[in-house]
Design brief:
The protein has 213 residues and is of the alpha+beta class. It is built from 6 helices and 7 strands. Strands 2-1-3 form a 3-stranded mixed sheet, sandwiched between helices. A two-stranded antiparallel sheet has the order 4-5. Strands 6-7 form a two-stranded antiparallel ribbon.
Length: 213
């Protein structure tokens, strides 16, 4: 993993709310902000790049993320799509910059006259890219007749553990959630893993055949 990408991921983790369960992908956040930086100029561009790749540039970030998405031992799919308002004038160099990203695409839709249909169109594409796992990325009301453009990132990854969990070792165990404690199927395995703990958080790695960003 690139050092700048790792530093950005740690910085973003530290800025997130400390409580509750909050799954997030450094890859997806960097992709969306990188696409925005590709079309930005001046202070806006500088601030976006400072957040994800200080001293870098969107094209270099696109190459880094593109390489990370090519995995020999995993099924991966990436979509980085710029949806624009029908009839809008988008610069050709920005369109090409979007197409240079992994899974890059530029599409138009009629936000003004059919905002709900546009929302469903975007959601349908995300559902297809994620093999049906994300069905309603944009909730009702998030797209309206004043929407000018939407940057959408979707990431699908299916990869096996290097040391698979034994099915017969999965048994119910107590899971402590904000809504209360309940029994859930819990995987169990004993092996030596890389582990770290500092300042209130703990991290354990579960190795896979491929290096995943």
């Amino acid at each position: 993993m690139d050092r700048q990408h790792l530093e950005y991921a740690v910085a973003l983790h530290e800025a997130l709310p400390p409580g509750g369960n909050l799954p997030w992908s450094p890859y997806s956040v960097a992709s969306a902000l990188g696409l925005a930086a590709s079309g930005a100029r001046g202070r806006t561009r500088d601030e976006l790049l400072d957040a994800i790749a200080r001293g870098g540039n969107p094209a270099a970030l696109a190459r880094l993320l593109g390489g990370a998405a090519r995995l020999a031992d995993a099924e991966a799919a990436v979509a980085n799509t710029l949806w624009t308002k029908a009839g809008s004038n988008v610069r050709e160099d920005f369109k090409q910059a979007v197409l240079d990203w992994p899974g890059g695409a530029v599409r138009t839709t009629d936000f003004e006259n059919d905002p709900e249909g546009s929302r469903q169109k975007i959601n349908n594409e995300v559902e297809q890219e994620t093999r049906g796992l994300i069905k309603d990325l944009l909730p009702h009301g998030t797209v309206h007749d004043r929407t000018g453009s939407v940057i959408v990132n979707a990431l699908y990854l299916k990869v096996a553990w290097q040391n698979p969990f034994e099915e017969n070792s999965t048994k119910p165990a107590a899971f402590h959630a904000p809504s209360g404690t309940r029994d859930v199927p819990t995987m169990r395995q004993q092996e030596q893993l890389r582990y770290g703990a500092v300042e209130g958080w703990q991290l354990a790695t579960l190795p896979t055949p491929s290096d995943v960003v």
